[in-house]
Amino acid sequence: MIDAKLIVDRIKAVEEAALDLERLSKARSSSENKNDITKSLAAQNAIQNAARKLSVIARNERMGSVALSAKTLFGSVVSRHSVLGSTRAISSSFNYYQTSGADIRGGQRFMDRFAKRFVSTNETSRVIYPTPSGSAGDVAEGDNKPTRQYSFSPVDYQFSKLAVTDTITQEIIIADAGERASRFIIDALIEHVKDELNARLISYLATNGTAFNPALFSGYLNISPGAARWHDLVAAAQLQFERTFADHFLDIKYGDILLAPVRVYWGILQDRKGTGSELYYEPDFLGNLSLSSIWKDYTGTTLVLTHTEAVTIEIVDDIQVYYNRVADANADTNISRVTVEVYYRFVPSKNPVPAIVSTDPLTDLNALQS
Q1: Count of H helices and E strands in the chain?
Q2: Among the listed ranges 47-56, 147-156, 181-190, 329-338, which one has the minimum average pLDDT value?
Q3: pTM (2 decimals)?
Q4: Dihedral, CA atoms, 263, 265, 269, 271, nearest 10 degrees?
Q5: Up-side HSE of residue 219: CA atoms within 13 Å toward CB?
Q6: Across 45-64, average pLDDT
């Protein structure tokens, strides 16, 4: 049943917002007639705020109040007259910034190189992986043929919810005319959540990848002690990747993306040939990997070689951004709260996850030449 009182309240709210628009339009016209540019711009801004308020009410979105700013409408004057008759003024501005938590290139993070799939619900997904046993062999005419059999392993993938809430005081909103502060807090939260999701993918690969085994290559470089290069380590990891994950049906043979701790990344870029006088400049040193495909991990210590088709990032196509005002009488606070939450999961293309992981790259590098 439709709530008649709710409809009446909505109509009144729309009417009030429309009256705000009319009054502000007249204020704008008056200020333009007086050629007062400052008041004209302020009135335009106020009209935009009123229009936004009207739009929010019309769409029935559950947001915090969108209030008109008297400071914006009438211009700002901050002054104090002392007993000496001199004028003193203080003008303050907010300097917004947020340190990046991930290596970002052209607006992309490490995770953005991987496939994404957007789904409508957060239900569990079951993936069934085949494992064959047995192989072809030579047989005499009329003898029984070798048999291959398959076992199937179902794996359930559930969504995880990544969420965060930021709070900002009403005093800050007023001091900063409201909208800039609110816009910043939402943008900053979204970027923060992206950084955290990027870190979750790195942790997933590091945890579920195959450990690099330097013993497979130890002693085969035919070089003097201490002469192994980072390129040697990556080349060995590529060979292990090929041996472990090359596939008939998936377009995966070599890894095409490398995640390196900052110190290892620096070492790879400064890698030198021979006596140490000439830098490596080859764009490709094995497989599909190039220097542009090597990404920095700001906080980790693990080297991860993987393929951009190794994992699909699935996200529920309904990222929630909540904005509401919270008044706490006991704490004597009046704040606005912004919450961002997203449901995500990582689904590998095959089992085990196509990734070679070195938890101690420097030790593994030295082990290659021993």
Answers
A1: 8, 18
A2: 47-56
A3: 0.72
A4: 60
A5: 2
A6: 47
